[in-house]
Specification:
The chain is α+β, with helices and mostly antiparallel strands. It is 42% helix and 16% strand.
């Protein structure tokens, strides 16, 4: 499953051998039989360093296209189509999303052997963060403001989209446990349907660890979140998932990318995730207070409120949601690493450093300072 010639970003911001082989010329030739846009002389321009799937940019006679390939255990065609329908809805509402290309039969997700493929048109704008590691804050407060405003526009566009919860937990940012009155009981109820996660947790004192690290933050959240309507969100709102237009001294968002984590959560969940992704340099926490960008968090919030109103109570809830917003997704990463790529080491990082570690970080002076900054903005 691993190819030594292709490396991706590891969990410690290092370069590691890819779990999934790079997209090959043979696979592109197979796709050319199904997509008119890819027919002709196609050449590979770039392989993505992101780790959870294989992706490549190709140049053909009809333009440049982004090909993404998933293992079928992570994304079937049916599951992938869930996010494609959301993208199509946003496009119809005028949001600048990247077009998903349909094949000659109208399908946007194709299965071939153990793989599931999707093809996207090249987005409009500059990929300013293509080579920047994940968890890296934006280059400027102005870009954070623009990102916050675009997220608000996405939420307004999403209000007319109604679809069931995603058919998978794997690498999807859901908020089921956060909305539950008792997250431990809710997770216990899920485990029979999530054998990979159950196998990992079987030899881990997870109930006691969640009781210590998560439940104090969670107290009262379920009742308050009940007033927040379900809304499909992007759920991975980082500046590296945006393309940018520069000119006249202003940098604005020109395209929105990568809806792989999208699901029905809430506007506050999506905004809290955006703050978590952009305002904290998680891979540089040894820098102390310098790893926290309160100005970025505020810019995201102010930009968001420029296009979509938030009450004072909602901003308080946003701050209280932040220490546990990662709960469901962190467990999905544990499940992915343990059951799909069979890496106990990576599953341990997802459980210890991500699930428990992020919640614990908000108890530090730096974490408390960020929460105070947000509460002050209410």
């Amino acid at each position: 499953m691993t190819t030594p010639a292709h490396h991706v970003q590891g969990l410690d911001n290092d370069e590691v051998p890819a779990d999934w082989p790079a997209i090959s010329a043979g696979e592109i030739a197979w796709l050319q039989q199904h997509f008119v846009e890819l027919q002709g002389d196609c050449r590979l321009l770039w392989h993505s360093p992101r780790p959870f799937s294989a992706a490549a940019l190709v140049q053909g006679p009809h333009g440049r296209f982004f090909i993404k390939r998933h293992h079928h255990s992570v994304r079937s065609a049916a599951v992938l189509s869930e996010e494609h329908r959301f993208i199509a809805h946003l496009a119809a509402q005028g949001l600048p999303v990247v077009q998903v290309i349909a094949d000659q039969n109208g399908a946007t997700a194709l299965e071939h052997g153990v793989w599931t493929f999707e093809v996207h048109a090249e987005g409009i704008g500059q990929d300013l963060y293509r080579d920047v590691p994940s968890w890296t804050p934006p280059a400027s407060v102005e870009q954070a403001w623009q990102a916050g405003r675009m997220l608000a526009l996405l939420h307004t566009a999403a209000e007319g989209f109604h679809a069931a919860q995603r058919a998978t937990h794997l690498l999807v940012a859901r908020d089921d446990l956060i909305r539950a009155e008792d997250p431990i009981a809710a997770l216990t109820a899920q485990l029979p349907d999530r054998p990979g996660l159950a196998a990992y947790l079987a030899d881990t004192p997870w109930r006691a660890e969640l009781q210590r690290a998560i439940l104090p933050w969670h107290m009262g959240l379920a009742t308050r979140l009940a007033a927040e309507p379900r809304l499909w969100g992007h759920n991975d709102w980082h500046v590296s998932n945006l393309l940018w237009q520069t000119g006249s001294g202003v940098t604005t968002v020109s395209s929105v990318l990568d809806f792989g984590l999208a699901s029905p959560t809430s506007a506050l969940y999506d905004l809290a995730t955006a703050i978590e992704r952009n305002a904290i340099a998680w891979l540089q926490l040894d820098r102390g207070a310098q790893a926290v960008r309160g100005d970025i968090a505020l810019a995201l919030l102010v930009g968001y409120r420029d296009a979509r109103a938030l009450s004072s109570d909602q901003v308080q809830l946003l701050a209280d949601l932040l220490p546990v917003v990662h709960l469901d997704f962190a467990l999905s990463e544990v499940e992915y690493f343990h059951a799909i790529t069979r890496s106990r080491a990576n599953a341990d990082v997802a459980y210890r450093a991500f699930l428990l570690g992020h919640a614990d970080w908000f108890r530090t002076p730096a974490g408390q300072g960020l929460l105070a900054t947000l509460r002050g903005a209410a």
